[in-house]
């Protein structure tokens, strides 16, 4: 699947990788459609964590640790029969 690397983004779309040199596969897969990445970020931030928070989960004052968060997310994906 063709994607746009962080160095190949237009100035107005540079925000979709959050300034990071690389990002999650789902964001890279949507990199050809920057408005979709922004919609995903908004939905993700509302229901889970912002993309920036996902990059640096360690040290955040949270009730669950990173492994616990990932376990819950994995379990919910399985319960919802998510194929990704």
List the helices and strands and how they pair.
Layout lengths: L24 H5 L4 H14 L3 H5 L10 H14 L5
Describe this structure in words.
With 84 residues, this protein is mainly α. The relative contact order is 0.10. It has helices at residues 25-29, 34-47, 51-55, 66-79. The longest helix is centred in the middle third of the chain and has 14 residues, at 34-47. The chain has one domain.
Q: What are the main properties of this structure?
A:
84 residues, mainly alpha, 4 helices, 45% helix, globular
Number of domains: 1
Radius of gyration: 14 Å
In percent, how much strand structure appears in the residues? under 5%
Q: Please, how many helices?
A: 4
At a glance:
This protein has helices at residues 25-29, 34-47, 51-55, 66-79. The longest helix is centred in the middle third of the chain and has 14 residues, at 34-47.
